Amino acid sequence: MDDLAQSVLVQWRVNGVLHELDVLPGQSLMDVLRDALRLTGTHMGCMTGHCGACTVMIDGRIAKSCIAQAATLPRAEIRTIEGLMGPDGRLSPVQQAFWDEAGFQCGYCAPGMLFSAIELLSETPDPTDAEIDSALAGSLCRCTGYQSLRRAVRAAARALRETP
Amino acid sequence: MKFGTSQTGVGRSVERVEDGRLLTGRGRYTDDIRLPGMLHAVTLRSPYGHARIRRIDTSAAAAMPGVVAIYTHADVADYGPVPCMVPLSGPIQTPRLLLAKDVVRFVGDGVAFVVAETREQARAAADAIEVDYEELPAVASIAAATAPGAPKVWPEAPSNVLFTWEAGDAAAADAAIAAAAHRVSLRIVQNRVAPTSMEVRAAVAQWEEGQGILHVGSQGVAGMRALLAGMVLKCPPESLRIVTGDVGGGFGMKTFIYPEYALVLHAARALGRPVKWAGDRSDAFQTDTHGRAMESDATLALDADGRILGLKVETWSDLGAYQAQFGPAIQTFAGGRILGGVYRIPAIHNRVHGVVTNTAPVDAYRGAGRPEATYIIERLMDAAAHRLGLGTDEIRRRNLLTPDELPHANGLGLTFDVGNFPAVLEKALANADWAGAPARRAEAARRGRLHGRGLCYYVEIAGGGSAEEFADVRVGSDGVVEVAVGTQSNGQGHETVYAQVTAERLGIPLEQVRIVQGDTARLDQGHGTGGSRSMAWGGSACLEAADALVARGIALAKADLGDEVDYAEGLFRARNSNASLSLAELAARHPGGLDGRSRYAPEQPRPTFPNGCHVAEVEIDPETGVVEVTRYSCVDDFGTIINPLLLQGQIHGGVAQGLGQALLENVVYDEAAQLLTGSFMDYGLPRADDMPPAIAFDSLPTPSPTNPLGAKGCGEAGTIGAMPAIMNAIIDALGGTQLEMPATPEKIWRLAQAQRLPQAAE
């Protein structure tokens, strides 16, 4: 229990805002985001890294924040679902595509699906259906049967290709 | 009324109102709530399937940092048990206490409730509670529970069978079977599955001025309040307010009261601070109600031409350790009367035994008895076709009821009203290119893969237990029409579709309507969402409330304008002058006075009968046993469709849950009643790459005569159609070898090793 009490100071830029935080060893990034920063758009689904509801971006790569130890990230650039909108407050093209295609139902899986799509499309602007499935397969959705999510990723790909 | 006249009205794929907040992380699910001074609770659960509690020592735990209170049975003994609303077991009671008294009956049964300043402190303290258990012999399956000399889950039920329910005519069914040219019998097992909403259950309670406020993900706040107040907490309903925000999926499971909901209210009152309980995935697998879990002996009798003469089914339904809220109803009243589908069956009998085991309680899960009943008849139909050498399409063609035979009493207490089942079948076969399947089979064989095609014709009895529903409309001085409805979206998109219906009825823009749900302080009546009932009854309640609003507005405007008044498109117009008042203007003149309320309650409430035909094709790799669903299509009759885009989402999600049960999902207890599938590592939920390339949907509606919208309900159909269609396709690929769900690679690989698969390559 002693080392648990040893808090660690971390410096994170979260959605563009700099935070200095004391975090405890063992504390997940998800818990810090949700509890300390009140960024509740990052969701708890399993705490084992299987469902993706807690997905965020750490230094430009997507990660499951429930199994990311906060204290192992002394300095990091973190983006959560709350930080996906543009500076003008408009939805990003990927968010807009998910809206246009009714991608979500309950919306709980949104962090995993949106970030998976963003990462996929940043590397693969014109993905095949198999590549879309492979990207989405890191996250679970119980509502949509993935059909609308696939459709949304395809629409997002089109939108991003058409936007310079 | 005439629909489809507006760009956002009935029949239009309007985009979802909900998504503005859900896409940006601004949804508010229960665990997102953080109240000042809030405490955190954890339930200590039984690690045994069956054990006697000799002693609980909380002293060490109570002294741990941050611990505020630890409750055990004695502290909450005055409250009622979690209610079972279906009294099929007569005098045999199986009360699930909020915390176990001296016996625990399944892994996850609550033993103590620990409240601390933080969740981590509560969890650490729960780990420090010493419980002295005496392990008792357990029964973890129907077979174990019904074996001679089996250990008893309840001493009051020496056979572990709590009730036997029957419908139909046993003698007639026996006689038909005895005299038939062909008899097909199957033993059919329907695996236990976990509903697995992505949002785990959670509850937050606080007390304000003598009223307990419970924030909880529910499928309807009014019903939950009535039961929680009346049967558990034993307080007047007005002393509770239940609030449901965004819900991350429910699928039936979030309809019910769970012990934690009463325990947080108790703790918050006793401690004078808000208390949150937020379950984790382990809590969910252990204690969310499970679904299906049954075994059946089923016999179908046919004449020489493949026409059905009789059907007889005997089912053992695993209820779990406690009879859940509607648990005993699922295979009886909910599903047991739809057995036999929309086929012409002269003699039919269904017998259901309710069995208790040392497992989690079983209750409604998407379809709630209808998928199970459909699965039985559809497996039999394919087995019969195989036996008689008929096509699986042809045997259905010969037995489906035709429109001129409707209405038709099905022999189990239901009367099918409208539909065109043969036309739906033919359209589904055409859309699926059923005739082209043999060529695809040959092509698959050249690749060394086994190909199969499967059909399911389903009918659902929809509309839930009651056709009554409530809506309450108010207009603010900004002209926004706020409609409170007594159903509860869990992600289906009700905020959008109800707004479509209401806006069209009032002739106003969609944006001017706001749908609210989930707060007994706003609307304390309603029957919630379940049984595919929301659109038929909730949508009708919205229509009637809009009409009540117009009537009220006309009365007010008449007095204000001193003239007869007509309403159209948001304006109340005087007949004899140019004077008019908009909704906003009239509302501003009568603060809080421009409103309307409806109780939609047809004089003769009747269910609706959504129906349809699902067609699946699979390919199996005999080397690995992996099944791939290569083609999937369906044609459904949902009556009037409000929003095709959102409706298809219901189909797709439903198909995924049926596919999951058919291919992947299985809750497993070992012989000692230990839960072996307690995480996503052991319980297979479908992922994107498990799904077919596309799910083609088409509609051939016959509007329901039961409600003004003509809607039949679409929430459960996908699941009902998918399980049989996919399993029939797999069995077809296996050359008729019967196989039980889930059709895992291991099971098929074992068949291959036993040389029981047909040869793929020519």
Describe this protein's structure.
The complex is a heterodimer of chains A (164) and B (762). By secondary structure, chain A is of the alpha+beta class. Chain A folds into 2 domains: 81 residues, Ubiquitin-like (UB roll), CATH 3.10.20.30; 70 residues, Orthogonal Bundle (DNA polymerase, domain 1), CATH 1.10.150. Chain A contains 5 helices and 5 strands. Chain A has a 5-stranded mixed sheet with strand order 2-1-5-3-4, sandwiched between helices. In chain A, helix 2 packs across helix 5 and helix 3 packs across helix 4. The radius of gyration of chain A is 16 Å and the shape is globular. The mean pLDDT of chain A is 95. Chain B has 762 residues and is of the alpha+beta class. Chain B has 3 domains: 145 residues, Aldehyde oxidase/xanthine dehydrogenase, molybdopterin binding domain (Aldehyde Oxidoreductase, domain 4, 2-Layer Sandwich), CATH 3.30.365; 189 residues, Aldehyde oxidase/xanthine dehydrogenase, a/b hammerhead (Aldehyde Oxidoreductase, domain 3), CATH 3.90.1170.50; 319 residues, Aldehyde oxidase/xanthine dehydrogenase, molybdopterin binding domain (Aldehyde Oxidoreductase, domain 4), CATH 3.30.365.10. In chain B, the strands form 7 sheets. Chain B has a 7-stranded mixed sheet with strand order 3-5-1-12-9-10-11, with helices on both faces. Chain B has a 5-stranded mixed sheet with strand order 7-15-14-13-8, with helices on both faces. In chain B, helix 10 crosses helix 11. The mean pLDDT of chain B is 96. The interface between A and B is large, with 54 and 59 residues.
